[in-house]
Amino acid sequence: MGKRSTVLLTKRVVDAARPDRDRYHIWDSELPGFGLRVAPSGVKTFIIKYRTDGGGRSATQRIMSIGHFGPITVEQARRAAKTKLGCVAAGQDPAEDLQIKRRDMTISDLIDLYEKQGCFVRHGRRQGEPMKPKTKTETVARLRNHVMPLLAQRKSRSLNPGDIEGLVADVASGKTAREVRNRNGRRIVLRGGVGMAGKVARDLSVVFSFAIRHEIVTTNPVTHAIFRKIDNRRMRFLTVEELASLGAALDELEMGKCNPKGINIIRLLALTGCRRSEIAGLEWSEVNLAKGLIELEDSKTGPSTRPLGGAAIDLLKSIPKEGSKFVFPAERGEGHFTQTPVVWCKAVAKAQISGATLHTLRHTVGSIATCLGESLALTGAIPGHARLSSTEGVLLQNLM
C-alpha cells in the first residue's frame, strides 16, 4: 500500500511530495476524504475517498480522481472535493455517476478529457515528466485535425482494430488533408500522408491507454490493429550532389528577394543537424562562438549542447543583431522567424530535389558524420540525440 500521512494539503506540501518505490497517499487534515496520490512516476493526483450507501464499514469504499496537480491547483481541487463529498452526504455516488457518463463517451469527448487531464505528462520512456507545451500543442492538433473529422461521434468503447486500420488508411491517403485558419486567421495547410498516419495512430494509442487507466474503456484497439506496413518507409538522406544543388539554389535565392533569415536557417540546419525549432528559435544567449557551441537551454530532450563547425561559426558571426534576443527575429511583432518552410519549398524546387523535408537535413548530417569516420557518440551529439539507439536507427536506415 505504501506510506500514508495526514497533513494540511498546501502547494508547498504538494510540491515537496517526492515519488517513492510504491504509490502512496497524503490525506488532508482539514477536509476528511480529500487527499493526494503520488505515483512512482511522479504524477500527483488529487482524489477523494468515501463510502456509498450512507457510509458504514460494510459500505463500498470508492476512490475518485479529482485531477492532476499542475492543470489544477490545490485550492481548485479542494473546492471540487467539497462539492463531490457534499453530493455523497446527500446520498449520491459521484464516482458511479461519472463511470456511467464515461461509458457513453464519444471520441470527441475522450480527446477533450485527454487534453485536460492526460496530455500534460509524457508517456513511455519518460513517463510522468511534464510534456513540453509545443509537444502538447502538436499532439492535440493532430488528434483534432485528423481523428476528429473521421471518428468524432463514435462511442469510444465501440472502436475496434478494424476502425483504427481504416483511420490510418484514410489519413495516409490524404482524406483529412485540407486548409484551415488558426485563431490568428493565418492559413495552415494540413497534410495527411503515411508519416502523419503513423503519428496519429501513436497519439490515439496513448489516448486509449489513458482511457483504460480511467476505466473509460477496457481495451486499446490500436494495439491490435495491423497497419505497420503503411509506416515502413525508407528514411530520406540528401546525397552529396543534392547538397551541392541545394547550396547553389540558396545562393541564387539570396541574390533575389527571398528572405535571408529563412536561407540562413536552412544553412545552419544543414551545418549543425539541429531540429528546425531549435535553430528558428535560437537565442543569442545560447550561442557560444568562443567555444564553438550552441548551448540550448531547452530542447526536445532537455538542455543540450551542440558542437559547431567552422562554417557554422562564420555564418553566425555574419548575422547582424537586430536588438532581439532571437538570432532570427520575426519580421513583425515578437517571437522568431517562422516562414522557413516557405523558403525551403522554393529552394528544393529550384534545386530539383524531391521527397525531402527540412528534417531530412538532420538525418543527413548524422549520416555524413559517420561516413567521415566520426564515433557514434559524436555523431549523436551533433544532432542532439538523447540515446545512442536513436543515432543507430538513423544510420542503419542509411545502410539498408
Describe this structure as you would to a colleague:
This protein has 400 residues and is an alpha+beta fold. It has 3 domains: 4-92, Double Stranded RNA Binding Domain; 107-231, Tyrosine recombinase, N-terminal domain (DNA polymerase, domain 1); 240-399, hpI Integrase, Chain A, CATH 1.10.443.10. Helix content is 46%, strand content 12%. The chain has 15 helices and 10 strands. The strands form 3 sheets. Strands 1-2-3-4-5 form a 5-stranded mixed β-sheet. The protein has a 3-stranded antiparallel β-sheet with strand order 8-9-10, with no helix packed on it. A two-stranded antiparallel ribbon has the order 6-7. The chain is globular.
Could you name the key traits of this structure?
400 residues; alpha+beta; Double Stranded RNA Binding Domain; DNA polymerase, domain 1; 3 domains; three-stranded antiparallel sheet; 15 helices; globular; Integrase_DNA_bind_dom; Integrase; DNA integration
Question: What topology, given as strand order, has the largest sheet?
Answer: 1-2-3-4-5
Order of SSEs: EHEEEEHHHHHEEHHHHEEEHHHHH
The coarse silhouette is globular
Number of H/I helices? 15
Total number of distinct structural domains: 3
CATH-derived architecture of the largest domain: Orthogonal Bundle
Q: Count all strands and give the number.
A: 10
The CATH superfamily label of the largest domain reads Intergrase catalytic core
- The CATH class designation of the largest domain is Mainly Alpha
Organism: Rhizobium tropici
Protein name: Integrase
Domain Tyr recombinase: 233-400
Keywords: DNA integration, DNA recombination, DNA-binding
